[in-house]
Write a structure and sequence with these properties.
By secondary structure, this protein is an alpha+beta fold. About 20% of the residues lie in helices and about 25% in strands.
Length: about 130
Amino acid sequence: MEKGTKDNPWKLMTPPQTSSYEMYKDEKDGTAVIVCVVGKTTLLYDYRCIADLHAMLKAHGDWMELGSADEQKPAKEGTVEAWGRSASNPVGGWYGLKKGLRGRFGMYMPPLMEELGLAEVTHDARGNKMRAV
């Protein structure tokens, strides 16, 4: 069975390996999305973030801090989180699609990128980083 579907989601762990969650590809309002299920909370990310993040990391060429933050908190400059909500990224803003829950891009997308073989991610208690492979 194909992995990354609602019936067979990717089973992932946050970068510090402290919490588990699931992700799968779906469609919402005619747009391909990544559904991220964390406990009882469901987040949505624009599916194109996978290719866009990989391209950005390739161009960056080195490790980049993840810098995960909730939508209501500012993201640390120069991090994956800041890029995932920046007006200068390919979508011109947030990859998160669910108002109020658009943050945490730097927490949930890197392990998926690692699972897909597109990135390496560190797994320390704090200050994790990623880079393209």
